[in-house]
Amino acid sequence: MTKKESELSIPQDIASEEFVIGSLIMAGEEALNLIDPILEPSNFYSERCMLIYRAVMALYQRSEKINLITIKNELSSQKTLETVGGESVLHSLLGNCGTWLDVDSYGKNVYRLSQYRRLIVASEQIKSIGYNADSDLNSSLEKADDILYKFNDVNGNNNGFVHIKEPLNEIWDNATNPTGLTEIATGFYDLDGMIEGFETGELTVLAARPSMGKTALATNIAINVAKRQTGVAFYSLEMTRKQLLIRMLSGESKIDYKTIHYNLKRKLKGLEWNFTSEQENKFANATGVISELPIYIDDTNALRPMEIRNRFKKLSHQHEIGLIIIDHLGMIRSDIKTENKVQEIGYIVNQIKYLAKEYQIPVLLLSQLSRALTLRTEKRPVLTDLRESGDIEQTADVVMFIYRDDYYKLPTDKKDNMAEIIIAKQRNGETGSVKLQFTGLYTLFQNLAKKENGNEESTAI
Known about the structure:
By secondary structure, the chain is α/β, with parallel strands linked by helices. The chain has two domains: 1-161, Orthogonal Bundle (DNAb Helicase, Chain A), CATH 1.10.860; 177-459, P-loop containing nucleotide triphosphate hydrolases (Rossmann fold), CATH 3.40.50. The chain is built from 17 helices and twelve strands. Helix 1 packs across helix 7 (103-132), helix 7 packs antiparallel against helix 8 and helix 11 (214-226) crosses helix 12 (241-253). The chain is elongated. The termini are far apart.
């Protein structure tokens, strides 16, 4: 039987909090480095422990030693030594600590319980919105969603405003520090020349009609980025990870998709490869290359924005990630109910942009284009061809389209295997287009290089 609210107790464990504080008094920075995630003073329920921890963090931020004497002096300077019970309390906490090597498990318990207290506060705020029963339901839902979004903020301490000097210093540091680059190169030289790579904290939308090459280009970019040892999180909401992997192997080995797929099916049946000796060597080499790349694939379909965020949060704690790719927008489910598709798409795109900003990581979001453009004489996409385009166009920092003449040609027509990447919007740069070679047999985009006579030829990257 569920307890009444009045009978429930606030989640807290003073013993765990005191163990953490005792460990810090005993081992100082060594104990602090074991605690993951790093605690904030607000994570402590006990005022005494909160004040002592605040003193510890003040010492740590000044790179001073952390021990009983320095903590006592810091509490005195903050005029809180008597509030915590005096120096005798510090000795008592130190004596009751035991072995400080277990501090991480106690720290995790302190953090866990503090999040439940935050959840109670958030639920009370949402409950208040519900009881208020405002006539504007969408506004109420947005308020509730905002509360949940803030609750899920991994830092939970963003005050919003910063003095203009702070971002100015960041720009200056990036300009004077060779290792301070903030963009991720796509590996396609002309494209990088136009957009200067994917900028951290920005959302780039890559859109095209089905079978135009969205996933192929995204996969090629993922491999190019990963070959420079930058981690890539790839959400494949439409294709299975096996289908995506075969595309990668096809492009890397220059063996067509069907041949690889057929041979993998033979292996599953216990049969030998049916590759030529040359193909078998190419496939083995490609497998070796692809298997070492820092690419992490999640092929769960119909994820919600919050699920995408939470899964990335977990991955980012395990691996260093420099780029997120999501394929594609139409396969993402909304966290909230909306009146129409336009509002739903707008909400999802905004949540993905929040993800980019929160983790200061570039996000490449793939999207379909409206079928209406196929009815026009001029079939090069424009911004209004984005499905339910309003918020996509407004929210994205960069919008790119893929256009291939070959897509609209008859099977008997001569193909030029050229693709045009149209930069239709760039918040901080010019619009325009660049050309790449596209080999559909290998689902592969390649750079074009200038010959001495001025003609172009394709080059692998």
